[in-house]
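Troubleshooting log. The previous structure file for this entry was overwritten by mistake, so regenerating from the original sequence record. Sequence copied from the archived sheet and checked twice against the printout by T.R.
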Amino acid sequence: MKEKSMMKKGIMIAACFIIALLSMICIIQVKPVSAATVKLNKKKIYLYNGYTYKLKLKNAEGKVKFSSSDKSIATVSSKGVVTAISEGKTKIKVKNAGNTYKCTVIVMGEEPDIEEPENPDINDPKGPEDTGLPKDDQAIYEAIIALKDEYPEGTPWTNSNLYVWNSSVASGLGYSQFTGGGCQGFAMMASDAAFGEIPVYKFTDINSVRVGDILRVDNDNHSVIVLKIEGDVFTIAEGNFNSSVHWGRMINRYDCGFVYGYTRYPKDL
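Regenerated output below.
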């Protein structure tokens, strides 16, 4: 009788063990797998008339449909290629699996011409007479625009492109060195081309901007360097603009989403 009791007890323990093991197996089998996030490669793009940019809906499965809210400003193909038509602002809608994703497209009109001096000499206090810039601004402009030979329009430039300010430059910010990536890195490089080892300082007064200053704009989402100032219009150069280098875009002093800037001019000037 005792042996039967022990046998039953053993069978019950074994059964419990098997049930527990099966439960664990079931849990492992039904564990959910996280799906990759579906998102657009860009939420905002800037284009001149006639320029194009391809939108991609990353990790999307099934049919993807593109449409433009205003085809007179920008059109979009079935493959997501956006074409700028005329100056203005519109949205590209991308539908997939019952969800809608949007990208703002800002068309800036005709691309402006950037005057490039022949054989620029940044040590010449006069410089070419055709830009109308003060002599100091002219030298800074020439030093920055000279980079266009090495980094022409459309050169790939993304957040993976880094640039470092050494201790001589970064000391004005209170750092031993300062690293910037993407748009910030390009602006830092261009700034060094014009100012060399001169320390950099941070400022927040939009009315104190000078040629060669770096501006943090688009509500702290983008950095640019100032090439020219004509009233309240800044002509700029920038990296990571649609993932590339861009020269000559114009922005308004009071409508560019300015947050702060970096200058190489002494604080007392």
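The chain is about 20% helix and 30% strand. Archived copy saved in two places this time.
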